[in-house]
Write a sequence for this structure.
């Protein structure tokens, strides 16, 4: 009987520790950044080196097996990224590497009501029209972001969205 009680206690403590770790890794805030008339909304996920590596390689950890909705981009006036027009509401998606294809960033026009269903859960991005897709060639940087952060700079002629996650940085630049 004592062995069963000890086993149940160990199991309960292990489950509590796993639950606490999962809670710690959850985003704790919906972030909204603005520059000019452009807004970006995203969840501030905790840096997870293993998950990012899985996305870069494809497969592996569960994070590397599906696409992730990173942010909602709201731009009433069109901007262009590499000659491709983006306007209205769009979704910024991080797609894992797959086979010989690298990890990519995609901007897709979708019904936004289907995306952020819960502050702590990012839904699999819904189908929609892809208007922009590039390799997600994040650069390794010295500065460490414990949580996903984004910065939006509007010079009037161009718009830069910086995506900083852990020790990785990617900048997307569009024109007005």
């Amino acid at each position: 009987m004592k062995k069963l009680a000890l086993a149940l206690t160990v199991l309960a403590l292990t489950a509590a520790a796993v639950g606490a770790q999962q809670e710690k890794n959850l985003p704790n805030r919906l972030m909204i950044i603005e520059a000019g008339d452009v807004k970006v909304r995203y969840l501030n996920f905790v840096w997870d080196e293993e998950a990012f590596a899985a996305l870069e390689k494809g497969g592996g950890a569960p994070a590397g097996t599906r696409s992730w909705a990173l942010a909602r981009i709201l731009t009433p006036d069109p901007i262009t990224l590499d000659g491709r027009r983006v306007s209205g509401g769009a979704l910024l998606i991080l797609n894992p590497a797959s086979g010989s294809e690298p990890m990519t960033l995609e901007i897709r026009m979708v019904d936004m009501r289907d995306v952020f269903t819960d502050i702590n859960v990012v839904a699999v991005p819904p189908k929609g029209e892809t208007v922009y897709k590039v390799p997600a060639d994040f650069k390794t940087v010295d500065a460490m972001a414990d949580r996903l952060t984004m910065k939006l700079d509007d010079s009037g002629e161009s718009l830069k969205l910086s995506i900083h996650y852990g020790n990785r940085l990617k900048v997307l630049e569009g024109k007005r």
